[in-house]
Amino acid sequence: MQVLVREYFSREDRRGASFFPLTVCANLPYYITSPLMMRLLESNLPFESITVMVQKEAAERLIAPMGTRAAGAVTAAVAYRAEGKLLFPVSRGSFYPAPNVDSAVIKLENRKTPPVSVKSEDALFKVIRAAFNQRRKTLLNSLSSGLSVSKEEMKSILDAAGVDPGARAETLTMEQFAAISDLL
Questions:
Q1: Left (φ > 0), alpha (ψ -120 to 50) or beta: where does 44 sit?
Q2: CATH number for the domain including 78?
Q3: How far apart, in whole angstroms, are the C-alpha atoms of residue 87 and residue 106?
Q4: Residues 133-136: contacts with CB within 8 Å, 24+ apart?
Q5: Which runs of E-coded beta strand occur in 29-158?
Q6: How many CB atoms are closer than 10 A to CB 93?
Q7: How far is the CA of 114 from the CAs of 107, 117, 160, 165, in angstroms?
Q8: What residues contact residue 157 under an 8 Å CB cut-off, 6+ apart?
């Protein structure tokens, strides 16, 4: 993907033209769905939409509402960059030979403006990754270890953001992630 992105930008630079919007359409294997989607969403490429067929569980995670148990780091990245919707399910019987899983096709349409304003998008995504990296730990523990910040300092940041230090990452809203990243 890095090669394609590099070629895309260098080709446009040579012609001196402005960048044209991209549309991504793919059938993604489950094992690369989250890393590839995170890369795409964090890349700042000018995509209009991303339409992908993925394993059903991955689709549910990608478009899950923030603040629910199904939410993960990739859910937060989708919520920040795009509006996701399930287009249709695809049963395993639609393929030959049939896989052991069902699939779904989802579409992510690029947001013109993010749902929250942040001082640094890089900081926001670092906070999100650190929070979900150890999802079974409390927010205080996962953020302090993931961001190399003392627990005392992290507790004061969480208190200032109005976030319970004992909460889990999946319970936070996008506004709470933004507040934490801005305070860091």
A1: left
A2: 3.40.50.150
A3: 5
A4: 133/73, 135/72, 135/168, 135/169, 135/170, 136/168
A5: 47-55, 82-90, 103-110
A6: 9
A7: 17, 7, 23, 26
A8: 149, 180, 183, 184
Residue 115 lies in a domain: no
Domain boundary among 110, 144, 171: 110
Number of folded domains that form the chain: 2
CATH code for the domain in which residue 130 is found: 1.10.8.100
Angle at 69 between CA 63 and CA 73, to 5 degrees: 55
Same domain, yes or no, for 11 and 102? Answer: yes
Residue 172 and residue 150 share a domain: yes
Give pTM, 2 decimals. Answer: 0.81
Q: Which residues contact 29 (CB under 8 A, 6 or more apart)?
A: none
Domain span including residue 67: 2-110
DSSP string over 153-170: HHHHHHHHHT--TT--GG
Question: What is the mean pLDDT of each successive set of 10 residues along the chain, which is 184 residues long?
Answer: 52 53 87 88 84 94 90 92 94 90 94 92 93 90 93 94 93 94 93
